[in-house]
Specification:
9 helices; ATP12-like fold; about 160 residues; mainly alpha; single chain; about 0% strand
């Protein structure tokens, strides 16, 4: 994966307020908040996702709510405010990594955990693709989906290397 992190960091810095606002809005549809009604998958989500949700809640001082419906839960103004405060304290480098990780994992919770070193890139990938990997185990792998997942994994590994510099 050949990302120009320097240019991205400059762009994020220049548009920091807008980026932060969009990420706060994006948090309402965080992938880790939407659990399967299917028992086996939901149990796996609870086992693997709940520790990250609790960790992020404590770090950010927020209360993210999970659901098994397709309706987006209202996290509340306090959670949104705390998430914005958290992002405002990130360095330009961290916010750049956070932004890219959130887009690739569909989760500000996973982006937070990756940027703060709570999980590594491989763990972020596994957690973000939990449902798809479950379906692939159940029904078999699909070539296009495998290529998409490889791209995401490569991007997350690049983000991890960028943070380590």
């Amino acid at each position: 994966m050949d990302l120009n992190f320097k240019q991205l960091e400059q762009d994020i810095t220049k548009n920091r307020e807008d980026i932060t606002k969009k990420l706060v809005g994006f948090a309402r549809a965080d992938a880790l908040l939407f659990w399967s009604p299917e028992d086996d998958l939901r149990k796996e989500q609870e086992q693997k996702w709940m520790p990250v949700i609790h960790w992020a809640d404590n770090l950010i001082n927020a209360r993210f709510k999970v659901t098994t419906s397709l309706e987006v839960e209202n996290a509340g103004a306090e959670t949104a405010s705390e998430l914005k405060n958290f992002m405002d304290k990130l360095s330009a480098k961290e916010l750049t990594a956070f932004y890219l990780a959130a887009l690739n994992t569909r989760s500000v919770l996973l982006a937070t955990a990756l940027v703060k070193g709570h999980i590594n890139a491989d763990e972020a990938f596994e957690l973000s693709e939990l449902e798809e990997l479950y379906q692939a185990r159940k029904w078999g792998k699909e070539e296009v989906a495998e290529a998409r997942r490889k791209s995401i994994k490569d991007t997350l590994n690049s983000i991890e290397k960028y943070l380590a510099k």
